[in-house]
Amino acid sequence: MTKKDLSFPEAMKFDQRIIERARTEGALSSKERESYLKDLPDEASKIVYVEVYEEPPVEEPTPHIDELTFSS
Fold it and tell me: How far, in Å, CA of 72 to CA of 59, rounded?
């Protein structure tokens, strides 16, 4: 059985979703990745905070049961 030759386009080589596979197959070295991360621009000044909240769940009414029931 031969190993598939999966070459990665330059733009995909650093994609977080496939980075582990690129390393495993030798398409990306740790040194190359560190260099890429170091060269990324600092975008901290463009940060926007977004408030996220969750609605409380709507409780369904308990159906009326005419017989004796137990709950824990």
Answer: 18
